[in-house]
Amino acid sequence: MEVTLDQLANKYQTDKGTQYPGGNRHGYAPIYENYLSKWRQSDIRMLEVGVCLEGTVGGHSIYMWSDYFPYAQIHTFDIVDMSIHPSVLCNDRVFFHQGDQGNRSDFVRMYQAAGEKDFDFILEDGSHRHEHQMISFAGLFGYVKSGGYYILEDMSIPNHNVCCIRNDETYEIITNFKNTGKLVSNHMSKDEIRYIEENVSNVEIHHDVLNAYAVAIITKR
């Protein structure tokens, strides 16, 4: 029997697992498996933004993805220079790009360095600051393949207790977008908003196991 994504998340102690020992346990892994398992044996391309967990060496999720997707090309993006920790870049399928998620030009440089080829899915797990979440959505959604996913992690749920940063506005904006098809953000240009509205086919929102944060799974048309 194949090991599950949640078992790998728990093995490598990422907060995406259901048994993460820290107070910010999210348990997103079973949710992700419902969407991503179809690609498990495929040579997909993925990008995760934010891989340096809580200021540590980080890389926990890199090991998880590398084991779960044995043929995938795994790109990572973080403001911390992960290249100085070669053990985290655990095989020749893992690529690190350093940059600031608040800077759109850093995303362009990342995309160029990654061969200017779109990703099957992009997962944003960066600073969790509202403006960074919106800038990243605007700057990266165009790099998702048709039929792929943009995954926006850790939106704080209004009126719920949270362990860390609050970004209720992100949850409210994405929920309104799901319900109305209209995206409203002061951190996106009109052209960026128009592109997203015209190229999203579905938005699903899932609460984490502690009912504190939520993740949005946004499907590219």
Write a structural description.
It is a single chain. This protein has 221 residues and is an alpha/beta fold. It has a single domain (5-220), classed as Rossmann fold, CATH 3.40.50. The protein has seven helices and seven strands. The chain has helices at 5-11, 29-36, 60-68, 104-113, 130-140, 168-180, 190-199; strands at residues 45-49, 73-78, 94-98, 119-124, 144-156, 200-207, 213-220. The protein has a seven-stranded mixed sheet with strand order 3-2-1-4-5-7-6, sandwiched between helices. Helix 5 links the parallel strand 4 (119-124) and strand 5. Helix 1 (5-11) packs antiparallel against helix 3 (60-68). The longest helix is centred in the last third of the chain and has 13 residues, at 168-180. The chain starts with a helix and ends with a strand. The mean pLDDT is 93.
Quick structural overview:
This protein is an alpha/beta fold and 221 residues long. It has helices spanning 5-11, 29-36, 60-68, 104-113, 130-140, 168-180, 190-199; strands at residues 45-49, 73-78, 94-98, 119-124, 144-156, 200-207, 213-220.
